[in-house]
Design a protein that fits this description.
With 536 residues, the chain is of the alpha/beta class. It has helices at 9-18, 29-39, 54-65, 72-75, 86-89, 110-128, 140-150, 174-188, 205-208, 236-249, 257-264, 278-287, 302-307, 311-322, 344-353, 369-381, 387-393, 395-403, 407-419, 430-440, 485-494, 500-508, and strands at 42-47, 94-99, 156-161, 194-201, 217-221, 267-268, 274-275, 327-328, 358-360, 363-365, 448-456, 459-467, 474-481, 515-523, 528-535. The strands form 4 sheets. The chain has a 5-stranded parallel beta sheet, covered by helices on one side. A 5-stranded mixed beta sheet has the order 11-12-13-14-15, with helices on both faces. A 3-stranded antiparallel beta sheet has the order 8-10-9. A hairpin with a 2-residue loop joins β9 (358-360) and β10. α1 (9-18) crosses α3 (54-65) and α14 crosses α20.
Length: 536
Protein backbone atom coordinates (compact mmCIF):
# COMPACT_ATOMS: atom_id res chain seq x y z
CA UNK A 1 0.00 0.00 0.00
CA UNK A 2 2.87 2.34 0.68
CA UNK A 3 6.51 2.75 1.52
CA UNK A 4 5.92 2.90 5.27
CA UNK A 5 2.23 2.12 5.75
CA UNK A 6 1.35 -1.56 5.37
CA UNK A 7 4.38 -2.15 3.18
CA UNK A 8 5.14 -5.62 1.78
CA UNK A 9 8.89 -5.18 2.28
CA UNK A 10 9.08 -6.82 5.71
CA UNK A 11 6.97 -9.76 4.56
CA UNK A 12 9.32 -10.44 1.65
CA UNK A 13 12.46 -10.02 3.76
CA UNK A 14 11.30 -12.26 6.59
CA UNK A 15 10.06 -14.92 4.18
CA UNK A 16 13.54 -14.99 2.69
CA UNK A 17 15.04 -15.19 6.19
CA UNK A 18 13.19 -18.34 7.21
CA UNK A 19 14.33 -20.07 4.02
CA UNK A 20 17.98 -19.62 4.96
CA UNK A 21 19.76 -22.89 5.92
CA UNK A 22 20.70 -21.67 9.41
CA UNK A 23 17.51 -19.89 10.41
CA UNK A 24 16.66 -19.86 14.14
CA UNK A 25 12.99 -19.62 15.10
CA UNK A 26 12.51 -16.73 17.54
CA UNK A 27 8.79 -16.21 16.85
CA UNK A 28 7.76 -16.86 20.44
CA UNK A 29 8.68 -13.25 21.10
CA UNK A 30 5.43 -12.31 19.36
CA UNK A 31 3.40 -13.83 22.19
CA UNK A 32 5.08 -11.42 24.61
CA UNK A 33 3.76 -8.50 22.57
CA UNK A 34 0.14 -9.65 22.48
CA UNK A 35 -0.82 -8.16 25.90
CA UNK A 36 0.63 -4.79 24.86
CA UNK A 37 -1.52 -4.77 21.74
CA UNK A 38 -4.58 -5.21 23.92
CA UNK A 39 -3.52 -2.45 26.29
CA UNK A 40 -2.66 0.05 23.56
CA UNK A 41 -0.35 3.06 23.68
CA UNK A 42 2.62 0.97 24.81
CA UNK A 43 6.17 1.85 23.76
CA UNK A 44 9.08 -0.63 23.77
CA UNK A 45 12.67 0.02 22.76
CA UNK A 46 15.22 -2.79 22.47
CA UNK A 47 18.87 -1.81 22.01
CA UNK A 48 21.64 -4.22 21.01
CA UNK A 49 25.00 -4.06 19.18
CA UNK A 50 24.86 -4.14 15.39
CA UNK A 51 24.20 -7.44 13.66
CA UNK A 52 22.43 -8.97 16.65
CA UNK A 53 19.15 -9.69 14.88
CA UNK A 54 17.28 -6.44 15.52
CA UNK A 55 16.16 -5.96 11.93
CA UNK A 56 15.15 -9.61 11.52
CA UNK A 57 12.89 -9.32 14.56
CA UNK A 58 11.42 -6.03 13.34
CA UNK A 59 10.59 -7.66 9.99
CA UNK A 60 9.06 -10.64 11.81
CA UNK A 61 6.75 -8.41 13.85
CA UNK A 62 5.66 -6.42 10.81
CA UNK A 63 5.08 -9.54 8.70
CA UNK A 64 3.02 -11.20 11.42
CA UNK A 65 0.87 -8.28 12.56
CA UNK A 66 0.48 -6.34 9.32
CA UNK A 67 -2.69 -6.25 7.24
CA UNK A 68 -0.89 -6.14 3.91
CA UNK A 69 -1.11 -9.87 3.19
CA UNK A 70 -1.89 -13.16 4.89
CA UNK A 71 1.35 -14.45 6.45
CA UNK A 72 0.04 -17.83 7.54
CA UNK A 73 2.21 -19.51 4.88
CA UNK A 74 5.28 -18.14 6.69
CA UNK A 75 4.32 -18.67 10.32
CA UNK A 76 2.22 -21.86 10.29
CA UNK A 77 5.34 -24.03 10.60
CA UNK A 78 6.99 -21.83 13.25
CA UNK A 79 6.67 -21.91 17.05
CA UNK A 80 4.20 -19.03 17.30
CA UNK A 81 1.58 -21.07 15.42
CA UNK A 82 1.21 -23.26 18.53
CA UNK A 83 -0.04 -20.28 20.52
CA UNK A 84 -3.82 -20.32 21.07
CA UNK A 85 -3.96 -16.62 20.12
CA UNK A 86 -2.15 -17.11 16.80
CA UNK A 87 -5.14 -16.34 14.59
CA UNK A 88 -6.46 -13.56 16.81
CA UNK A 89 -3.43 -11.32 16.26
CA UNK A 90 -2.07 -12.42 12.89
CA UNK A 91 -2.50 -9.79 10.14
CA UNK A 92 -4.93 -7.62 12.11
CA UNK A 93 -3.12 -4.29 12.33
CA UNK A 94 -2.15 -1.23 10.36
CA UNK A 95 1.64 -1.14 10.52
CA UNK A 96 3.81 1.91 10.05
CA UNK A 97 7.26 0.42 9.51
CA UNK A 98 10.25 2.74 9.15
CA UNK A 99 13.88 1.76 8.82
CA UNK A 100 15.67 4.96 9.81
CA UNK A 101 18.94 3.76 8.28
CA UNK A 102 17.55 4.15 4.75
CA UNK A 103 18.75 7.51 3.48
CA UNK A 104 17.88 9.45 0.33
CA UNK A 105 20.54 9.81 -2.34
CA UNK A 106 22.90 12.74 -1.81
CA UNK A 107 21.53 13.40 1.66
CA UNK A 108 23.88 15.77 3.46
CA UNK A 109 21.67 17.50 5.99
CA UNK A 110 19.28 16.60 8.76
CA UNK A 111 16.52 18.59 7.05
CA UNK A 112 16.80 16.46 3.89
CA UNK A 113 16.79 13.31 6.00
CA UNK A 114 13.77 13.99 8.21
CA UNK A 115 11.72 15.79 5.52
CA UNK A 116 11.91 12.72 3.31
CA UNK A 117 10.68 10.46 6.12
CA UNK A 118 7.75 12.70 7.01
CA UNK A 119 6.83 13.39 3.39
CA UNK A 120 6.73 9.69 2.52
CA UNK A 121 4.63 8.89 5.57
CA UNK A 122 2.10 11.61 4.79
CA UNK A 123 1.99 10.46 1.16
CA UNK A 124 1.16 6.91 2.28
CA UNK A 125 -1.57 8.15 4.61
CA UNK A 126 -3.06 10.39 1.93
CA UNK A 127 -3.24 7.44 -0.45
CA UNK A 128 -4.85 5.12 2.09
CA UNK A 129 -7.28 7.71 3.48
CA UNK A 130 -8.18 9.96 0.52
CA UNK A 131 -11.26 11.26 2.30
CA UNK A 132 -9.13 13.08 4.87
CA UNK A 133 -8.36 16.73 4.26
CA UNK A 134 -4.64 17.36 4.67
CA UNK A 135 -3.25 20.86 4.95
CA UNK A 136 0.13 21.95 3.65
CA UNK A 137 1.59 22.64 7.08
CA UNK A 138 0.28 19.41 8.68
CA UNK A 139 2.81 17.15 10.32
CA UNK A 140 2.53 13.37 10.12
CA UNK A 141 1.22 13.43 13.68
CA UNK A 142 -1.49 15.90 12.67
CA UNK A 143 -2.62 13.65 9.83
CA UNK A 144 -2.67 10.55 12.05
CA UNK A 145 -4.65 12.41 14.69
CA UNK A 146 -7.22 13.41 12.05
CA UNK A 147 -7.49 9.83 10.82
CA UNK A 148 -8.12 8.63 14.35
CA UNK A 149 -10.88 11.19 14.89
CA UNK A 150 -12.58 10.89 11.51
CA UNK A 151 -12.04 7.23 10.53
CA UNK A 152 -13.58 5.23 13.32
CA UNK A 153 -10.61 5.64 15.66
CA UNK A 154 -8.10 3.92 13.42
CA UNK A 155 -4.94 2.95 15.32
CA UNK A 156 -1.47 1.94 14.19
CA UNK A 157 1.43 -0.24 15.26
CA UNK A 158 4.76 1.53 14.76
CA UNK A 159 7.79 -0.66 14.04
CA UNK A 160 10.82 1.63 13.99
CA UNK A 161 14.21 0.10 13.21
CA UNK A 162 17.62 1.75 13.77
CA UNK A 163 16.10 4.69 15.64
CA UNK A 164 19.55 6.13 16.47
CA UNK A 165 20.99 6.02 12.95
CA UNK A 166 21.04 9.80 12.60
CA UNK A 167 23.32 10.13 15.64
CA UNK A 168 26.11 8.42 13.73
CA UNK A 169 26.01 10.79 10.76
CA UNK A 170 28.56 13.58 10.53
CA UNK A 171 26.04 16.14 9.31
CA UNK A 172 23.83 15.78 12.39
CA UNK A 173 24.56 18.57 14.87
CA UNK A 174 23.66 18.50 18.54
CA UNK A 175 20.70 20.73 17.74
CA UNK A 176 19.61 18.29 15.01
CA UNK A 177 19.67 15.44 17.52
CA UNK A 178 17.40 17.40 19.85
CA UNK A 179 15.06 18.13 16.93
CA UNK A 180 14.96 14.44 16.04
CA UNK A 181 14.08 13.39 19.58
CA UNK A 182 11.28 15.98 19.57
CA UNK A 183 10.09 14.59 16.22
CA UNK A 184 9.75 11.10 17.72
CA UNK A 185 8.10 12.49 20.84
CA UNK A 186 5.58 14.48 18.81
CA UNK A 187 4.82 11.47 16.63
CA UNK A 188 4.36 8.93 19.42
CA UNK A 189 3.93 10.31 22.92
CA UNK A 190 0.37 10.42 24.31
CA UNK A 191 -1.12 9.87 20.86
CA UNK A 192 -4.44 7.98 20.79
CA UNK A 193 -3.64 6.46 17.39
CA UNK A 194 -0.64 4.50 18.77
CA UNK A 195 -1.54 0.86 19.40
CA UNK A 196 2.07 -0.16 20.05
CA UNK A 197 5.53 1.19 19.31
CA UNK A 198 8.30 -1.34 18.85
CA UNK A 199 11.64 0.43 18.35
CA UNK A 200 15.22 -0.86 17.99
CA UNK A 201 18.68 0.66 17.89
CA UNK A 202 22.18 0.51 19.30
CA UNK A 203 22.24 3.56 21.56
CA UNK A 204 20.15 3.68 24.74
CA UNK A 205 17.36 6.24 24.60
CA UNK A 206 18.34 7.79 27.91
CA UNK A 207 21.50 9.25 26.45
CA UNK A 208 19.68 11.38 23.92
CA UNK A 209 16.51 12.12 25.81
CA UNK A 210 17.73 14.41 28.55
CA UNK A 211 14.24 15.49 29.52
CA UNK A 212 10.89 13.75 29.35
CA UNK A 213 10.54 13.63 25.57
CA UNK A 214 10.82 9.83 25.23
CA UNK A 215 10.20 8.75 28.80
CA UNK A 216 7.15 6.77 27.70
CA UNK A 217 9.45 4.01 26.37
CA UNK A 218 10.20 0.84 28.28
CA UNK A 219 13.83 0.30 27.40
CA UNK A 220 15.55 -3.09 27.27
CA UNK A 221 19.32 -3.32 26.92
CA UNK A 222 21.45 -6.45 27.09
CA UNK A 223 23.19 -5.43 30.31
CA UNK A 224 20.36 -3.84 32.26
CA UNK A 225 17.27 -5.99 31.59
CA UNK A 226 16.78 -9.75 31.35
CA UNK A 227 13.51 -9.58 29.39
CA UNK A 228 13.76 -10.39 25.63
CA UNK A 229 17.44 -11.38 25.89
CA UNK A 230 16.90 -14.85 24.42
CA UNK A 231 15.55 -13.35 21.18
CA UNK A 232 18.73 -11.46 20.27
CA UNK A 233 21.83 -13.52 19.69
CA UNK A 234 22.05 -17.33 19.80
CA UNK A 235 21.98 -19.43 22.95
CA UNK A 236 24.16 -22.51 23.50
CA UNK A 237 21.30 -24.87 22.70
CA UNK A 238 20.45 -23.01 19.49
CA UNK A 239 24.07 -23.20 18.32
CA UNK A 240 24.07 -26.91 19.16
CA UNK A 241 21.11 -27.38 16.81
CA UNK A 242 22.72 -25.31 14.06
CA UNK A 243 25.98 -27.23 14.38
CA UNK A 244 24.16 -30.55 14.17
CA UNK A 245 22.52 -29.37 10.97
CA UNK A 246 25.90 -28.22 9.66
CA UNK A 247 27.48 -31.64 10.27
CA UNK A 248 24.57 -33.38 8.51
CA UNK A 249 24.74 -31.15 5.44
CA UNK A 250 28.50 -30.63 5.08
CA UNK A 251 30.79 -33.27 3.59
CA UNK A 252 34.16 -31.72 4.37
CA UNK A 253 33.79 -30.30 7.89
CA UNK A 254 36.26 -27.54 8.77
CA UNK A 255 34.61 -26.18 11.94
CA UNK A 256 34.37 -27.77 15.37
CA UNK A 257 31.73 -26.97 17.96
CA UNK A 258 34.56 -25.68 20.16
CA UNK A 259 35.56 -23.26 17.39
CA UNK A 260 32.14 -21.62 17.46
CA UNK A 261 32.29 -21.19 21.22
CA UNK A 262 35.84 -19.84 21.23
CA UNK A 263 35.25 -17.36 18.41
CA UNK A 264 31.69 -16.13 18.77
CA UNK A 265 30.41 -16.80 22.31
CA UNK A 266 30.96 -14.61 25.33
CA UNK A 267 28.34 -11.85 25.35
CA UNK A 268 26.63 -11.83 28.73
CA UNK A 269 23.01 -10.92 29.38
CA UNK A 270 21.55 -9.41 32.53
CA UNK A 271 20.44 -12.90 33.61
CA UNK A 272 24.00 -14.21 33.24
CA UNK A 273 23.39 -16.25 30.10
CA UNK A 274 26.10 -16.29 27.46
CA UNK A 275 25.07 -15.36 23.93
CA UNK A 276 26.72 -15.96 20.56
CA UNK A 277 27.06 -13.35 17.85
CA UNK A 278 24.37 -14.58 15.41
CA UNK A 279 25.78 -13.06 12.21
CA UNK A 280 29.19 -14.61 12.74
CA UNK A 281 27.83 -18.07 13.59
CA UNK A 282 25.60 -18.15 10.52
CA UNK A 283 28.32 -16.95 8.15
CA UNK A 284 30.91 -19.33 9.59
CA UNK A 285 28.61 -22.34 9.09
CA UNK A 286 27.45 -21.15 5.67
CA UNK A 287 31.02 -20.62 4.46
CA UNK A 288 32.41 -23.66 6.33
CA UNK A 289 35.14 -21.39 7.64
CA UNK A 290 35.93 -19.60 10.91
CA UNK A 291 36.54 -15.91 10.30
CA UNK A 292 36.13 -12.35 11.55
CA UNK A 293 32.68 -11.80 10.09
CA UNK A 294 31.20 -9.29 12.53
CA UNK A 295 34.29 -7.18 13.12
CA UNK A 296 35.15 -7.06 9.42
CA UNK A 297 32.10 -4.85 8.86
CA UNK A 298 33.94 -1.91 10.48
CA UNK A 299 37.34 -0.26 10.04
CA UNK A 300 40.32 -1.67 11.95
CA UNK A 301 40.59 1.46 14.13
CA UNK A 302 36.97 1.28 15.25
CA UNK A 303 37.96 0.17 18.75
CA UNK A 304 40.66 2.83 19.05
CA UNK A 305 38.01 5.47 18.31
CA UNK A 306 36.51 4.91 21.76
CA UNK A 307 39.73 4.95 23.80
CA UNK A 308 41.67 7.67 22.00
CA UNK A 309 40.53 10.44 24.39
CA UNK A 310 42.08 8.85 27.49
CA UNK A 311 44.75 6.33 26.52
CA UNK A 312 46.72 6.78 29.74
CA UNK A 313 43.77 5.74 31.90
CA UNK A 314 42.89 2.58 29.95
CA UNK A 315 46.35 1.24 28.99
CA UNK A 316 46.80 -1.09 31.94
CA UNK A 317 43.22 -2.39 31.80
CA UNK A 318 43.63 -2.93 28.08
CA UNK A 319 46.78 -5.00 28.66
CA UNK A 320 44.93 -7.12 31.21
CA UNK A 321 41.90 -7.66 28.95
CA UNK A 322 44.06 -8.65 26.00
CA UNK A 323 45.60 -11.27 28.29
CA UNK A 324 42.12 -12.65 28.97
CA UNK A 325 41.45 -10.98 32.30
CA UNK A 326 38.32 -9.13 33.39
CA UNK A 327 38.69 -5.64 34.88
CA UNK A 328 36.42 -3.74 37.23
CA UNK A 329 34.27 -0.98 35.76
CA UNK A 330 31.24 1.07 36.76
CA UNK A 331 28.98 0.95 33.77
CA UNK A 332 26.38 3.58 32.91
CA UNK A 333 24.90 2.72 29.55
CA UNK A 334 23.59 6.20 28.95
CA UNK A 335 27.22 7.28 28.64
CA UNK A 336 27.39 5.74 25.17
CA UNK A 337 28.22 8.99 23.44
CA UNK A 338 29.69 8.89 19.97
CA UNK A 339 32.09 11.73 20.84
CA UNK A 340 34.01 13.11 23.84
CA UNK A 341 34.39 9.91 25.82
CA UNK A 342 36.70 11.00 28.61
CA UNK A 343 36.57 8.83 31.73
CA UNK A 344 37.47 5.17 31.72
CA UNK A 345 33.95 4.20 32.75
CA UNK A 346 32.45 6.23 29.90
CA UNK A 347 34.81 4.54 27.44
CA UNK A 348 33.99 1.05 28.65
CA UNK A 349 30.27 1.86 28.77
CA UNK A 350 30.31 2.84 25.11
CA UNK A 351 32.29 -0.25 24.13
CA UNK A 352 29.73 -2.47 25.84
CA UNK A 353 26.85 -0.78 24.03
CA UNK A 354 28.61 -1.20 20.69
CA UNK A 355 29.48 -4.84 21.36
CA UNK A 356 33.26 -4.62 21.76
CA UNK A 357 33.23 -5.62 25.43
CA UNK A 358 31.01 -7.80 27.58
CA UNK A 359 29.88 -6.88 31.08
CA UNK A 360 29.20 -9.21 34.00
CA UNK A 361 29.23 -8.83 37.78
CA UNK A 362 30.84 -5.42 37.75
CA UNK A 363 33.62 -6.36 35.34
CA UNK A 364 34.28 -5.93 31.63
CA UNK A 365 36.18 -8.26 29.33
CA UNK A 366 36.82 -9.04 25.68
CA UNK A 367 34.09 -11.58 24.90
CA UNK A 368 35.64 -13.91 22.33
CA UNK A 369 38.40 -14.70 19.83
CA UNK A 370 36.80 -12.66 17.05
CA UNK A 371 36.95 -9.51 19.16
CA UNK A 372 40.34 -10.43 20.59
CA UNK A 373 41.74 -10.42 17.05
CA UNK A 374 40.37 -6.92 16.59
CA UNK A 375 42.09 -5.75 19.77
CA UNK A 376 45.33 -7.47 18.67
CA UNK A 377 45.25 -5.56 15.38
CA UNK A 378 44.76 -2.28 17.16
CA UNK A 379 47.57 -2.89 19.62
CA UNK A 380 50.05 -3.63 16.86
CA UNK A 381 49.07 -0.63 14.72
CA UNK A 382 48.42 2.25 17.11
CA UNK A 383 51.69 3.80 18.33
CA UNK A 384 49.68 6.10 20.58
CA UNK A 385 49.03 3.13 22.87
CA UNK A 386 52.54 3.65 24.19
CA UNK A 387 54.08 0.75 26.11
CA UNK A 388 51.29 -1.64 25.06
CA UNK A 389 52.14 -1.01 21.42
CA UNK A 390 55.89 -1.21 22.09
CA UNK A 391 55.65 -4.58 23.82
CA UNK A 392 53.39 -5.99 21.10
CA UNK A 393 55.96 -4.93 18.49
CA UNK A 394 58.59 -6.92 20.37
CA UNK A 395 56.46 -10.06 20.27
CA UNK A 396 57.81 -11.37 16.97
CA UNK A 397 61.39 -11.12 18.26
CA UNK A 398 60.37 -12.77 21.54
CA UNK A 399 58.85 -15.79 19.77
CA UNK A 400 61.90 -16.25 17.56
CA UNK A 401 64.24 -16.03 20.57
CA UNK A 402 62.15 -18.57 22.48
CA UNK A 403 62.12 -21.13 19.69
CA UNK A 404 65.87 -20.63 19.25
CA UNK A 405 66.49 -21.06 22.97
CA UNK A 406 68.06 -17.61 23.22
CA UNK A 407 67.28 -16.91 26.86
CA UNK A 408 69.50 -13.83 26.90
CA UNK A 409 67.34 -12.03 24.32
CA UNK A 410 64.20 -13.24 26.10
CA UNK A 411 65.41 -11.70 29.36
CA UNK A 412 66.38 -8.47 27.58
CA UNK A 413 62.88 -8.10 26.17
CA UNK A 414 61.35 -8.75 29.58
CA UNK A 415 63.69 -6.17 31.11
CA UNK A 416 62.59 -3.73 28.42
CA UNK A 417 58.98 -4.45 29.41
CA UNK A 418 59.77 -3.85 33.05
CA UNK A 419 61.53 -0.58 32.35
CA UNK A 420 58.49 0.94 30.70
CA UNK A 421 56.63 3.27 33.01
CA UNK A 422 53.34 1.61 33.78
CA UNK A 423 51.45 0.60 36.94
CA UNK A 424 50.76 -2.91 35.66
CA UNK A 425 54.45 -3.77 35.92
CA UNK A 426 54.46 -3.62 39.69
CA UNK A 427 54.24 -7.42 39.43
CA UNK A 428 52.31 -7.70 42.68
CA UNK A 429 50.99 -11.04 41.49
CA UNK A 430 51.27 -13.50 38.63
CA UNK A 431 48.20 -12.01 36.94
CA UNK A 432 50.17 -8.88 36.12
CA UNK A 433 53.14 -10.91 34.93
CA UNK A 434 50.75 -12.98 32.80
CA UNK A 435 49.41 -9.83 31.16
CA UNK A 436 52.91 -8.81 30.10
CA UNK A 437 53.67 -12.32 28.82
CA UNK A 438 50.54 -12.11 26.67
CA UNK A 439 51.76 -8.88 25.12
CA UNK A 440 55.31 -10.03 24.41
CA UNK A 441 53.99 -13.25 22.83
CA UNK A 442 51.20 -11.50 20.92
CA UNK A 443 52.51 -12.49 17.47
CA UNK A 444 52.42 -16.14 18.56
CA UNK A 445 48.64 -16.00 18.24
CA UNK A 446 49.04 -16.05 14.46
CA UNK A 447 50.38 -19.62 14.53
CA UNK A 448 49.26 -20.84 17.96
CA UNK A 449 46.06 -21.10 19.91
CA UNK A 450 47.14 -19.75 23.27
CA UNK A 451 45.23 -20.85 26.37
CA UNK A 452 45.77 -19.80 29.98
CA UNK A 453 45.26 -21.68 33.22
CA UNK A 454 44.60 -24.86 31.27
CA UNK A 455 44.04 -28.17 33.07
CA UNK A 456 47.00 -30.37 32.26
CA UNK A 457 48.35 -33.55 33.87
CA UNK A 458 48.25 -33.09 37.65
CA UNK A 459 47.57 -29.36 37.72
CA UNK A 460 46.93 -26.15 35.85
CA UNK A 461 49.61 -24.77 33.55
CA UNK A 462 49.98 -20.99 33.09
CA UNK A 463 50.16 -21.00 29.27
CA UNK A 464 49.82 -23.68 26.62
CA UNK A 465 50.63 -22.82 22.99
CA UNK A 466 48.74 -25.22 20.72
CA UNK A 467 50.24 -25.13 17.20
CA UNK A 468 47.87 -24.68 14.27
CA UNK A 469 50.32 -26.49 11.96
CA UNK A 470 52.17 -29.78 12.41
CA UNK A 471 55.48 -28.14 11.51
CA UNK A 472 55.43 -25.98 14.65
CA UNK A 473 56.28 -27.28 18.12
CA UNK A 474 53.92 -27.09 21.05
CA UNK A 475 54.98 -24.87 23.94
CA UNK A 476 54.26 -24.93 27.67
CA UNK A 477 55.07 -21.80 29.67
CA UNK A 478 55.15 -21.55 33.45
CA UNK A 479 55.58 -18.28 35.38
CA UNK A 480 57.17 -17.82 38.78
CA UNK A 481 57.58 -14.78 41.04
CA UNK A 482 60.51 -15.00 43.49
CA UNK A 483 61.39 -18.48 42.25
CA UNK A 484 63.79 -19.73 39.58
CA UNK A 485 62.96 -20.61 35.97
CA UNK A 486 64.43 -24.04 36.67
CA UNK A 487 61.73 -24.55 39.31
CA UNK A 488 59.14 -23.58 36.72
CA UNK A 489 60.48 -26.21 34.31
CA UNK A 490 60.54 -28.85 37.03
CA UNK A 491 56.88 -28.14 37.74
CA UNK A 492 56.08 -28.58 34.04
CA UNK A 493 57.80 -31.97 34.04
CA UNK A 494 56.75 -33.24 37.47
CA UNK A 495 53.08 -32.44 36.88
CA UNK A 496 53.24 -33.90 33.37
CA UNK A 497 51.71 -30.84 31.71
CA UNK A 498 52.62 -32.16 28.25
CA UNK A 499 49.68 -34.57 28.45
CA UNK A 500 47.44 -31.61 27.64
CA UNK A 501 48.42 -31.85 23.99
CA UNK A 502 46.99 -35.35 23.65
CA UNK A 503 43.40 -34.22 24.21
CA UNK A 504 43.26 -30.77 22.67
CA UNK A 505 45.36 -31.53 19.61
CA UNK A 506 43.39 -34.66 18.90
CA UNK A 507 40.25 -32.53 18.90
CA UNK A 508 41.85 -30.16 16.39
CA UNK A 509 43.44 -32.96 14.30
CA UNK A 510 46.93 -31.52 14.70
CA UNK A 511 49.83 -33.73 15.72
CA UNK A 512 52.55 -32.18 17.85
CA UNK A 513 56.00 -33.59 17.15
CA UNK A 514 58.00 -31.52 19.65
CA UNK A 515 57.20 -29.73 22.89
CA UNK A 516 59.19 -26.82 24.30
CA UNK A 517 59.08 -26.09 28.02
CA UNK A 518 59.56 -22.42 29.01
CA UNK A 519 60.24 -21.17 32.51
CA UNK A 520 60.07 -17.42 33.24
CA UNK A 521 60.67 -15.92 36.66
CA UNK A 522 60.84 -12.48 38.24
CA UNK A 523 62.75 -11.63 41.40
CA UNK A 524 61.11 -8.74 43.22
CA UNK A 525 64.24 -7.99 45.24
CA UNK A 526 66.69 -7.74 42.35
CA UNK A 527 63.95 -6.72 39.87
CA UNK A 528 65.45 -9.13 37.36
CA UNK A 529 63.89 -11.65 34.98
CA UNK A 530 65.33 -15.06 34.27
CA UNK A 531 64.39 -17.46 31.51
CA UNK A 532 65.05 -21.11 30.78
CA UNK A 533 63.86 -23.30 27.91
CA UNK A 534 64.09 -27.05 27.45
CA UNK A 535 62.82 -29.48 24.85
CA UNK A 536 60.55 -31.94 26.59
Amino acid sequence: MGRYLNSSTSYVLYKGQIEQPYFVDKTQMLSELFPFLDAGNTHICITRPRRFGKTVMANMITAFLGKKQDSDSIFKSLKISQNDLYNKYRNQYNIISIDFSKMPRDCDSYTDYIDRIETNLIRDLRKEYPQIEIYEDDSAADVLETIFEECDQQRFVFVLDEWDFIFHKDFATEENKKQYVLFLSNLLKDRPYVQLTYMTGILPIAKYSSGSELNMFWEYTMASEAKYNEYFGFTDSEVDQLYEKYTRNTQDIHISREDLKEWYDGYTTKSGERMYNPRSVVLALTNNNIGNYWTSSGPYDEIFYYIRQNIDDVQSDLALMVSGESVSAKIQEYAAVSMNLVTKNEIFSAMIVYGFLSYENGKVRIPNKELMNKFDDMIQKEERLGYVYQLAKESDRMLKATLAGNTKVMAEILEYAHNTETPILSYNNETELSAIVNLIYLSARDIYRVEREDKAGKGFVDFVFYPKRECDPGMILELKVDHTPEEALEQIKNKNYKLRFQGKLAEKKVTVKKILGIGISYDRKTKKHSCQVEWL
